[in-house]
Automatic annotation (TrEMBL):
Pathway: Amino-acid biosynthesis; L-histidine biosynthesis; L-histidine from 5-phospho-alpha-D-ribose 1-diphosphate: step 8/9. InterPro entries: His_9_proposed, Inositol_monoP_metal-BS, Inositol_monophosphatase-like. It comes from the Bacteria. The keyword Metal-binding applies. It comes from Mesorhizobium shonense. Its cofactor is Mg(2+). It catalyses: L-histidinol phosphate + H2O = L-histidinol + phosphate. Keywords: Amino-acid biosynthesis, Histidine biosynthesis, Hydrolase, Magnesium, Metal-binding. It is an enzyme of class 3 (hydrolase). The keyword Metal-binding applies. This is Histidinol-phosphatase. PROSITE patterns: IMP_1 (PS00629).
Length: 257
């Protein structure tokens, strides 16, 4: 099936109506985990509620998996995967690198998705027509860079602190091989791979709602997204995205040691 850009824009607008008024507004933050800091805000919950209502009205037989409000009907062939605010830590810090992620899987494969950043007025999306951008500078089709060598690549990861034990040693050696390494930006870094500004994103421990929407945006722009072992990324895990198949293979080899 295809997902119309009109429906994607409606999702983005509905989410923005809940997130933007609360951004930089010092709202209440709840920690979801006692042993660490995993924040959630009213904006997260209300944005997901609005997105779920749109999907239920448009596709009542489809399943939904959301970060904040759980799952329903996920035995369906069609399942929407929602992260209302990917980058809640950035959101509560006033940094505009968070985004709303909504992706659609069919029989487990991600076939369409969007990343909306309403504060900057940007929408990255993929459907049957390819991978696209709408925002400052005007609409355009997205395409990854043609980088094939680690020595010429720009790498993003959320933070090296997420790598534990031997995995941290491998990551540190990997980072030494690239031209530029930067940290943070959550979903925005993945969108920049599709946009041709970043070459590699390596992020361990992702959930399905962190990555499903971004898979088709990157793949339809020419990139590759898998786990560190080369498997499908739709179920989350340690995720590697790269601008070209050659660069992806080089990065995967480096991360595996």
């Amino acid at each position: 099936m295809d997902v119309s850009i009109d429906f994607m824009r409606r999702i983005a607008r509905a989410a923005a109506a809940e997130t933007l008024p609360r951004f930089r507004n010092q709202g209440a933050v709840v920690n979801k985990q006692a042993e660490s800091f995993d924040p959630v805000t009213e904006a997260d919950r209300e944005a997901e509620r609005a997105i779920r209502a749109l999907i239920a009205a448009e596709y009542p037989d489809h399943g939904i998996l959301g970060e904040e409000h759980g799952s329903e009907n996920i035995s369906s062939r069609h399942v929407w995967v929602i992260d209302p605010i990917d980058g809640t830590r950035a959101f509560i810090s006033g940094l505009p690198v968070w985004g709303t992620l909504v992706g659609l899987t069919v029989d487990g494969d991600a076939i369409a998705g969007l990343m909306s950043q309403p504060f900057t007025g940007e929408l990255f999306y993929a459907n049957a027509s390819g991978s696209h951008y709408e925002g400052p500078g005007g609409p355009r089709k997205l395409a990854t860079r043609k980088t094939t060598e680690l020595a010429k690549a720009t790498l993003f990861t959320t933070t090296p602190a997420l790598y534990r034990g031997e995995a941290r040693n491998r990551y540190d050696e990997f980072e030494k091989q690239v031209q530029l390494a930067r940290y943070g930006t959550d979903c925005y870094a993945f969108a920049m791979v599709a946009a041709g500004s970043v070459d590699i994103v390596a992020d361990p421990g992702l959930k399905p709602y962190d990555i499903v929407a971004l898979i088709p945006i990157i793949e339809k722009a020419g990139g590759v997204v898998t786990t560190f072992e080369g498997g499908p990324a739709e179920k989350g895990g340690d995720i590697l995205a790269a601008a070209t198949p050659e660069l992806h293979a080089a990065a995967m080899a480096a991360l595996r040691g």
